[in-house]
Amino acid sequence: EAKKETLGFQTEVKQLLHLMIHSLYSNREIFLRELISNASDAADKLRYEALHNSALLNSDPNLEIRVDFDKDAKTVTIADNGIGMNREDVIAHLGTIAKSGTADFLSTLTGDQKKDSQLIGQFGVGFYSAFIVADKVTVETRKAGSEEGVCWVSDGSGEFTVEPIDKEKRGTTIILHLKPEAEEFADGWRLRNIIRKYSDHISMPILMRKEEMPAGDDEEKDVKDATPEWETVNTAKALWTRSRSEITDDEYKEFYKHISHDHTDPLKWSHNRVEGKLEYNSLLYIPGKAPFDLYNRDMQKGLKLYVQRVFIMDQADEFLPMYLRFIKGVVDSNDLSLNVSREILQKDPAVDSMKTALTKRVLDMLEKLAKKEPEAYASFWKEFGQVLKEGPAEDYANRERIAKLLRFSSTESTGTDQDQSLEGYVSRMKEDQDKIYYITAETPKAAANSPHLEVFRKKGLEVLLLSDRVDEWLMSHLFEFDGNSFVDIGRGDLDLGKLDSEDEKKAQEEAAKENEDLVKRIKDVLGADVEEVRVTHRLTDSPACLVVGQNDMGMQMRRIMEAAGQ
Ligand code: ADP
Ligand code: MG
């Protein structure tokens, strides 16, 4: 069975490779960040496995990454002594894309290089970015605990080979055979700079050979080549354990890219050390862009969990509520056990307290953003507002705070942007007004053109225009804001209370009386199709409109149920 095999890339990989090579050439140096990021992940995974099986680490206990180059051979090599891969792993991880949302992502690509390169960045470039600079990539790897090594080779054009090899130590070595136009990367100075720029935060040492003196005599050079000396080129300390004042914005941004696999900048972050009853460090980020799978059930959500600096798991989603699932970050606890599992996390009261505290941190961060940087908040809202709208239903305790963060389109908005806060609405309320009026419809346009708005326009009363899928769900969990209850103006009988004058009320009653016969006739004709026919004062121009009963399911909800075959 030990033989060489040629296999084809999954179609999506071929598409991605093609795009990457053609649209990322202006930012080629990121290949190194991606490969170092993988090497660091591999070391984290090994350290975790070794908690249960220390033999895995014993033979070669100092986890590190070595970056080397050969100017003559035109190669760059990235070697780690992390978890490594076996034949199956290699075929699965370096031949397919397992990520959810891949098809969606590929379908959004436009062929416009600038736009596409941004989209690819958001999707995550990963291992395949090696082909931005290399026309041939060799991966030699051996999985911790296994005897056999595997060699993977590809030129990135559609196929790859896998073959068993002897490899002395566990871990992965990636050899990039540089394209002629990328030979500049076989250079110590250049590589050191790239590492310091993008990978300084990597918590294990990244080593490079010490550079020999440029004008040394030949004899001395030979001696040095025989015993190369290596030096650490990064800070090699877990970023979240350093103090905030020593960390630059660029370092925070690069760290975000490492943990999120997103190469666009984050919008904001919050870095905290908590001491006392519970001790932990947290570093939470609001991404700049929504991922492709934000609405996918199996989207990557949750934080990276460390216990006493040791990586435990990715996507620990017990530390934040669902409506904050877009937050990326790290939590490093001193209280949890190194043996903690997902099952234990779900039951541990310490995790609950951390979740409460981390949720507050995120809400603080959003409040600050909304107050101090309204434009950045508007861009956050465009990306993640719909998810935040799930908040009041899920998080009763924070309902008031979440409500303040909500943004809606209203009859006061100029376009259809969701740009009005409830506080803003309340500040514009009329003197006798004690209700917040809203309407729900299929589209922003349908909401803005609804005949139900006629009387509100006439009286100068603001109405929130809701047309997102989650809006009815949201409104069924928001009862009041700042003492004002919410009223759906598309429902039941409209009572404007004190906002109608005595004269208006009288006129309405008279109209109802006068038209009793007409109403009865319409009711007879429509029969069982309607529950009730009423004279209304909602309208000023339109002759008639449909309303939903006070306690009936809303229109949007009905459509959703119908679509689901109910
Ligand atoms: P991601 O890092 O987002 O998972 P990549 O494309 O960067 O995606 O890597 C794909 C997969 O290949 C990784 O998830 C990992 O399983 C495997 N892999 C890549 N590089 C290494 C490495 N140096 N050691 C072990 N596994 C690796
Ligand atoms: Mg990666």
UniProtKB/TrEMBL annotation:
Binding site residues for ATP: 34, 38, 80, 85, 99-101, 122-127, 172, 342
Concerning PROSITE patterns, the annotation shows: HSP90
Q: Which domain of life is it from?
A: Bacteria
Q: Which GO terms describe its molecular function?
A: ATP binding; ATP hydrolysis activity; ATP-dependent protein folding chaperone; unfolded protein binding
Q: Which residue range or ranges hold the Histidine kinase/HSP90-like ATPase domain?
A: 27-182
Which SUPFAM superfamilies does the UniProt entry name for this protein? ATPase domain of HSP90 chaperone/DNA topoisomerase II/histidine kinase, HSP90 C-terminal domain, Ribosomal protein S5 domain 2-like
Q: Where in the cell is it found?
A: Cytoplasm
| Region of interest (A), residue spans | 1-342
**What keywords would UniProt list here?**
ATP-binding, Chaperone, Cytoplasm, Nucleotide-binding, Stress response
Keyword Cytoplasm part of the UniProt annotation: yes
Coarse class of the primary localization is cytoplasm
rRNA-binding in keyword set: no
GO (cellular component) term, any one:
cytoplasm
Give the InterPro entries listed for this entry: HATPase_C_sf, HATPase_dom, Heat_shock_protein_90_CS, HSP90_C, Hsp90_fam, Hsp90_N, Ribosomal_Su5_D2-typ_SF
Q: How does it assemble?
A: Homodimer.
Q: Identify its protein family.
A: Belongs to the heat shock protein 90 family.
Its annotated function is as follows: Molecular chaperone. Has ATPase activity.
Name this protein carries in UniProt: Chaperone protein HtpG
Phylogenetic placement of the source organism: Bacteria, Pseudomonadati, Pseudomonadota, Gammaproteobacteria, Oceanospirillales
